[in-house]
């Protein structure tokens, strides 16, 4: 990726979320550690599931402890009924909207499994991260989202099971040695109706091993929800399950995840100025 594509124009300091505040003079955008317990995040459980027994953060990441009896809970293309944490993404001129030309990346590492560890003993718990409109703050079945879910895969070698997609469709990937996941979410672009309300057609993932070596990759069927262009963009985090078939003897879950994200924003959208001399656009 051309590093100039990450220059957000005039740099506004003291932004509350996203990586734009952390863009240094060397034009490098840096990963931001996702911490749903930090200032600016809101936690909501509109379905009153009570699934999250505890959620804490430290230098090891986000430690998530869930109620195993609630393992019928899902965050997928049809159901989003768990407790979620969310906040607006701030750009250089205030809240980022779907009309802004941006993309976002997530990096998820499973750092530690504190309960139900060992091949075949995992509990199906995990976390989903992504972006959405305001529906992520209240809805349990019609959240307009796109992102990636990472789970303790029950059947295989303590693997991380991956689901990527959104409210249109998801794709599931299982690799025996997967321990980490990289996810890219493409920009929102208006379609042929030219009404100013864009779609985010694509997300894609790399399944990585513990040494950040790629094992496989996937991208789901294109997403077709049309976002309202002027609506703010939320980043969200939801602890949940992919399966209700936990192995016998499993207890309440305890997994620690390290999660980062970074936002790449183009102030001049898809209308950059061509400047001779291999120079950045002046938009």
Please provide a brief summary of the model.
This protein is an all-beta fold and 283 residues long. Helix content is 0%, strand content 39%.
Structure overview:
The protein is mainly beta. The chain has one domain (3-266): Jelly Rolls, CATH 2.60.120. The chain has no helices and 19 strands. It has strands spanning 32-33, 42-44, 52-58, 61-66, 84-88, 90-91, 94-95, 101-113, 125-132, 145-152, 160-166, 170-174, 180-185, 189-190, 198-199, 203-208, 214-218, 234-241, 255-266. The radius of gyration is 19 Å and the shape is globular.
Unreliable stretches: 1-19
Helix content: under 10%
CATH structural fold name:
Jelly Rolls
Mean pLDDT: 90
Q: Name the CATH class.
A: Mainly Beta
- The secondary-structure class comes to mainly beta
Count of discrete structural domains: 1
Q: Helix-strand pattern, N to C?
A: EEEEEEEEEEEEEEEEEEE
What general form does the structure show? Answer: globular
Number of beta strands:
19
* Backbone CA Rg: 19 Å
Strand content: 35-45%
Biggest β-sheet: count, sense, barrel? 8 strands, antiparallel
First and last CA, distance: 19 Å
List its salient traits.
39% strand; Jelly Rolls; single chain; eight-stranded antiparallel beta sheet; 19 strands; mainly beta; 0% helix; seven-stranded antiparallel beta sheet; globular; 283 residues
Blueprint of the fold:
Layout: E1 32-33, E2 42-44, E3 52-58, E4 61-66, E5 84-88, E6 90-91, E7 94-95, E8 101-113, E9 125-132, E10 145-152, E11 160-166, E12 170-174, E13 180-185, E14 189-190, E15 198-199, E16 203-208, E17 214-218, E18 234-241, E19 255-266
Antiparallel strand pairs: 1-19, 2-5, 3-4, 4-19, 5-18, 6-7, 8-13, 8-19, 9-10, 9-18, 10-11, 11-12, 13-16, 14-15, 16-17
């Amino acid at each position: 990726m051309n590093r100039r594509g990450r220059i957000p124009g005039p740099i506004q300091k003291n932004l509350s979320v996203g990586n734009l505040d952390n863009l240094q003079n060397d034009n490098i955008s840096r990963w931001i550690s996702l911490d749903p317990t930090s200032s600016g995040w809101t936690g909501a459980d509109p379905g009153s599931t009570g699934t999250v027994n505890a959620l804490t953060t430290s230098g090891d990441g986000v430690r998530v402890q869930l109620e195993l009896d609630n393992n019928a809970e899902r965050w997928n293309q049809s159901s989003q009924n768990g407790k979620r944490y969310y906040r607006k993404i701030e750009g250089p001129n205030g809240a980022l909207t779907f009309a802004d030309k941006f993309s976002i990346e997530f990096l998820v590492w499973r750092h530690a499994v504190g309960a139900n560890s060992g091949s075949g003993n995992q509990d199906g718990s995990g976390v989903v991260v992504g972006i959405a409109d305001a529906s992520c703050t209240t809805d349990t079945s019609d959240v307009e989202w796109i992102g990636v879910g990472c789970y303790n895969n029950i059947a295989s070698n303590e693997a991380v099971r991956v689901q990527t997609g959104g409210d249109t469709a998801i794709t599931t990937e299982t690799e025996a040695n997967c321990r980490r996941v990289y996810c890219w979410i493409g920009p929102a672009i208006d379609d042929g109706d030219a009404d100013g309300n864009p779609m985010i057609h694509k997300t894609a993932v790399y399944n990585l091993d513990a040494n950040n070596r790629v094992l496989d990759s996937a991208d789901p069927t294109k997403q077709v929800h049309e976002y309202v262009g002027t609506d703010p963009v939320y980043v969200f985090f939801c602890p949940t399950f992919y399966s209700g078939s936990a192995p016998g003897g499993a207890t309440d879950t305890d997994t620690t995840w390290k999660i980062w994200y970074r936002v790449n924003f183009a102030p001049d959208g898809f209308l950059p100025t061509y400047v001779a001399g291999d120079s950045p656009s002046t938009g």
